[in-house]
Design goal:
Distance between the termini: 53 Å
Largest sheet: 2 strands, antiparallel
Radius of gyration: 22 Å
Order of helices and strands: HHHEHHHHHHHHHEHHHHHHH
Number of helices: 19
Structural class: mainly alpha
Number of domains: 1
Shape: globular
Strand order of the largest sheet: 1-2
Number of strands: 2
């Protein structure tokens, strides 16, 4: 009898981690909202996917593949109604040094290992651990990511060959120094400035002109930058033609990497994928004002879906993915009602790839760098930083320590150092108060 009860408990737990018809309840009533939200998110995701793919070193096509496959798989198997997954700035922070050191071919095997680890974490019900991470650590983590994303754009913004090395800060400094010695590429720099100007001014212009149709500022900036570069025949680097077999299966070659590299890099990618996805899903529920426990995101199922998404995307020429806070927030603000919005977002990107490949090829990479520099500014959010400076000295110190650890070491060490610092100082302060 105990065996039957144990078996029933396991089956019930596994059932909760799998898709069901309840995931799509209300679809007939809300499909129009989900469709509009999906297209809106797709427009936002397009330039970001191209930019993150190029930044990683895997190419624009890898970014698009990741957005499509990861977005679709995570939408179906994940634990959030609103989550939109794909390539993210945080993941590029981890992947850039890996690709620089081991090459693009390392992404497929590492994606499979990382995906398997994330799935195992979901099956072991480790999803709730994210709620125990102190909020100052997460704020510092976010600030550190913003700084690293901005620094990663230096070679692309200057349209200059990236300096050797795997540390983002040192590579940015060396690249800028070499570019200054060789002579700055003012065409690329002007496109970066133009893109940033459009990105930050368009919302105000749209408001003054009473434009009711919501078109993401990043998309407008990319379109205008591409038109300007074509009209003036600017000699700048461009995305180029995407391969005709963009959805080709990529055979993973595990023998090209040592066991220690597979394990350590796989764990690092998995930790980041899990942390960022769960944070994004939690933020989505808060934005959507979800109160009913039955409607809130399921953290362990979310891990299962993200693990599968990373594995599938990596097997088809993409790279490890996570839940994307920016795209997820756009999804919620656009009125999404179910996970079908994320499915529509993936399908929209498929149509873009199939129909607009010739157009995408003319997009200047400097404009994509401008979009990501603007994104890093928004992530850092100076207004939010001012509010954070009004909090307690311990929280301020934790944010500073975490962000600097992310910048000078890496993301995972940043979280670890920030968490240890926070709890150690909390204990010290309590001891002094006795």
């Amino acid at each position: 009898m105990r065996f039957e009860e144990y078996r029933a408990t396991i089956m019930s737990a596994l059932t909760q981690l799998l898709p069901s018809s309840q995931d799509y309840s209300g679809f007939k009533q809300n499909w129009r909202r989900d469709l509009i939200s999906g297209i809106t998110v797709g427009i936002v995701a397009l330039p970001l996917a191209l930019a993150f793919g190029i930044t990683t070193g895997a190419g624009a096509q890898a970014g698009l593949i990741t957005a499509i496959f990861a977005g679709l798989v995570a939408a179906i198997f994940g634990g959030s109604r609103f989550q939109v997954s794909g390539p993210t700035g945080a993941m590029t922070v981890v992947l850039v040094p890996i690709v620089s050191k081991y090459g693009i071919s390392s992404l497929a095997p590492l994606g499979i290992v990382a995906g398997a680890i994330i799935i195992a974490a979901g099956l072991l019900r480790a999803g709730n651990l994210i709620n125990k991470t102190p909020w100052p650590v997460m704020e510092g983590f976010t600030l550190g990511i913003a700084m690293v994303i901005g620094l990663q754009q230096v070679p692309i913004a200057l349209d200059f060959q990236k300096a050797k090395g795997s540390h983002t800060l040192l590579v940015a400094i060396d690249t800028a120094r070499h570019a200054l010695s060789a002579g700055l590429h003012w065409g690329a720099i002007s496109l970066v400035i133009f893109t940033l100007a459009v990105k930050f001014s368009y919302p105000h212009v749209a408001h003054r002109l009473h434009i009711k149709v919501h078109i993401p500022a990043s998309f407008i900036a990319i379109v205008l930058a591409t038109i300007v570069s074509q009209l003036f025949a600017m000699k700048v680097s461009r995305v180029g033609n995407l391969p005709s077999k963009i959805f080709a299966y990529a055979t993973p070659h595990f023998h090209n990497l040592s066991f220690s590299v597979l394990l350590i890099a796989g764990i690092e990618i998995a930790l980041l994928g899990a942390i960022e996805s769960l944070l994004s899903a939690r933020v989505a529920d808060q934005m959507a004002h979800i109160q009913e426990p039955s409607e809130k995101y399921q953290p362990n199922r979310e891990l299962l879906g993200q693990g599968l998404a990373t594995m599938v995307a990596s097997l088809f020429g993409g790279m490890p993915a996570t839940g994307a806070i920016a795209r997820t927030s756009v999804n919620v603000r656009s009125g999404a009602k179910s996970r079908m919005a994320a499915v529509f977002h993936a399908l929209f990107l498929v149509l873009v790839v199939l129909l607009l490949n010739p157009v995408i090829s003319h997009v200047p990479t400097a404009a994509l760098a401008g979009v990501l520099i603007g994104t890093s500014y928004r992530i850092a959010s100076p207004a939010n930083l001012k509010e954070l400076l009004k909090t307690t000295p311990l929280n301020i110190a934790t944010i500073a320590v975490t962000s600097l650890a992310v910048l000078f070491i890496d993301l995972i060490w940043g979280i670890a150092i920030g968490t240890i610092f926070y709890f150690a100082m909390t204990r010290i302060f309590k001891g002094l108060q006795r």
